[in-house]
Amino acid sequence: MNNQEKMDIIISFQDNPLVHPLTCGRGGHKHRDLIPAVKDNVVILVCLDCSYWQPLHDDFIESLAQLDFQQRQVMKMTNDNLGVHQ
Predict the structure, then answer these.
(1) For a 10 Å CB count at each end of the chain, is N or C smaller?
(2) Per-residue pLDDT tens for 52-73?
(3) 3-class DSSP assignment, residue 6
(4) What is the predicted pLDDT for the residue at 80?
(5) What is the DSSP letter of 30?
């Protein structure tokens, strides 16, 4: 998985309304949600409200992808059952 694919997974996860977004380790809910960036060819999470950042391991990013996919499947099935079309 390349860095762009990793960033796309994080962006999708952060935009998923059914999961709690990844938040700042210093400011928590008082800061904006973390965003992905690349530092020294490693995908990291960055807080735009302070200097907080953290590296991510590939297995964690893969877990985010699975959780995001599963929750989006739940949302799709729920919408299908309710007759909601997006």
Answers:
(1) C
(2) 999 999 999 999 999 999 999 9
(3) helix
(4) 78
(5) T
Burial class (CB in 10 A: 0-12, 13-18, 19+), 80: exposed
Residue 14 backbone zone (phi > 0: left; psi -120 to 50: alpha; other: beta)? alpha
The reported pTM is 0.84
Nearest to 43 by CA among 68, 61, 29, 16: 61
Q: Tokens standing for 41?
A: 């060819």
The continuous run of DSSP H or E covering 77 comes out as helix 58-82
The token duo for 53 is 């950042």
Over range 18-32, report the average pLDDT: 90
Buried b (16+ CB within 10 A) or exposed e, 27-49: eeeebebbebeeeeeebbbbbee
